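Progress against Task 2.4 (sequence-to-structure conversion) is shown through the following example record, which the project officer requested during the mid-term review.
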Amino acid sequence: MGLKAVFDKTASFLKTSSSKRVLGATTATRDALFPSVHPDVDGADCAADCSTCTATYPKSFKINDEDELYGNIKPWATHMVIATGKSDWCRALPLERGTIMEALAKSGAAPKNGRLMISASNMIPPPDYYMAEKGQQPTKVLLLPSFTFVDHVRPADVKELFEGFVERGPTTTTPMDDSDRITSATEQQPSAGGNEGGKPPETSHPAEKGDGPVAKARLTSRPCSHAYVILLCSQASRDARCGQSAPILRKEFERHLRPLGLQRDLDDDMQSDGVGIYFVSHLGGHKYGANVLVYRRDAGQAIWLARVRPEDCEAIVKFTVLQGKVVKSQRQLRGGFDRSRGVVSW
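Structure tokens generated for the chain above:
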């Protein structure tokens, strides 16, 4: 296929073949949701496995290679990633006593702006978390796709978290604009120390724009400085394969990100740009492991891959994380969304 044919295909892709409208977004086919790599544009070896990868899964690591993957995920509006400092959890998150996960389940509440996907993560909580009594521990949560950290969240703060942040933030089907990120009236700016790229952009709490009173707001928020976030399912209590694959993939991703200056340590959420890699609880579809969910801040995208192996990491960094292209679409793409184009996989 020559360059003209590739460009014609790209133009067709941008028109987006679809079947229905979903809450302001269009359901796209697999080929229309994200562009795939092509040798004429991306190089003859664009889909090749990493030649320097020596990492392997255990011989017992067997997955389902037969099922069609695309569209095999539940729709979600907001993704809440909760810092717990752990990489494995009770099989059911509400059984994590005294945590935000338990409080969310007990409240029975749900955001008014769509389905909330909840993930526990190995993000490191603040020091106060380890000093407070169980049930009173303040931690931080990362809200996606807004790339917003909400700090000092306790189990008792679920209502304020929903009303002040989740319901006021953009969702997976919200068109992109200049007010995607939200912060509180008592915004905490990260210190300049260690932030080579400077502070994240200053923003304001939506209520300061006339959406309601915030005088009693206790929670604070700040923009997430990462340009990209990679989430790896690590919950061995649900499936041993997740616990096996996540550490191996993280090491491989970091190996390819480090020379690019994009690798970020687990406790580094202040330095501008870069890629944050976090272990999270069950995402669904562990029989298709490893599941990898890539959020791209400025593109307004999330690309959900499965059947990812260590030798895939180099191309995923080069093409998927940095360019929004899928390398092995038919084998690995489960779905996702693109807010800039108003398309989703569900």
